[in-house]
Amino acid sequence: MAPHVSPIKYVDGVRFSMSDKPFPVLLTFDLDGEAAFEEIHPGVPYWVTQGGYGPRKGVYRILDLLDENEIKATFCVVGLTAERYPEAVEEIVSRGHEVACHGYTHRGYNDLKPEEEREGIIKGREILEEFYGRKIVGHRTPRWRPSGRTHRNLEELGFAWNSDYMGSEECFYNVIDGRESRLLEIPVAYNLDDWTFYYDWGSTVKDTVDTWTIEFDARYRDRSLFCLTCHPQVTGRPSRLLCLSGIVEYIQKFPDVEFMRATEYVERYWG
User: Fold this and answer.
1) Residue 147 covered by a domain
2) What DSSP element (H or E) covers 5?
3) Contacting residues for 261 by C-beta, under 8 A, at least 6 apart
4) Element (H, E) at 27
5) What is the mean pLDDT of residues 1-15?
6) 3-state secondary structure of 203
7) Residue 11 domain-assigned?
8) Which pTM was predicted?
9) In the chain, which residue ranges form alpha helices assigned H by DSSP?
10) For the domain that residue 35 is a member of, what is the CATH number?
11) Residue 10 above 80 pLDDT?
């Protein structure tokens, strides 16, 4: 259970409001590759090749768009996908973006044995750190399906943030074994995920960007957080990239907004 979260917090006994700093916008991208479909549609090219589109083509379109707008983002990468497409991860790092863990395969941790889960987190992280050149402290569970062990594993392994929870707009520290930990949860949302719109609902680009702008307005008004989840195999398609471009252009009209990497946000707002 998540505690009630207020935009007011205290740092060293001093009252601090989230409204005292720029409104944070986190653009996050889950680079799944074929692993996203190999579990649920094994051996079906119609699905599996769609996953491969992300690291082969889609991610480069997204990187170019981010460069054009001088935005740094966070890429949650499946370890197996990094092994298959090392050049894609190298490109992400070379352009100054953050790399976070997204499991070794794309199986939800709730389907794994305890040792498989922990070993997969460690293996995926080690693979990515070879590209990133520094310690990785961010994590997002594949398919947003953690187990009852996940938060404890992440805390023990020194992660600073996780991003799976949908029950809040504001961040909070996860409760582990009955105590508040230092593992910050960066909430996600079903209506701020490209997969939901294009794969689950069959939405148009216009419907999607319209919804995202309305959601941004609401979150900007309550000074919480705007964390968008996209997938290069989804948003990297030519017409859908226009949707990402549209929400970026809309957000840039606001004077006190700042795009930032997830760990940068954690350090500046919660450090």
Assistant:
1) yes
2) none
3) 26, 72, 73, 74, 97, 98
4) strand 23-31
5) 42
6) coil
7) no
8) 0.92
9) 35-38, 45-53, 59-68, 79-84, 86-94, 114-132, 150-156, 194-195, 205-222, 232-235, 238-251, 262-270
10) 3.20.20.370
11) no
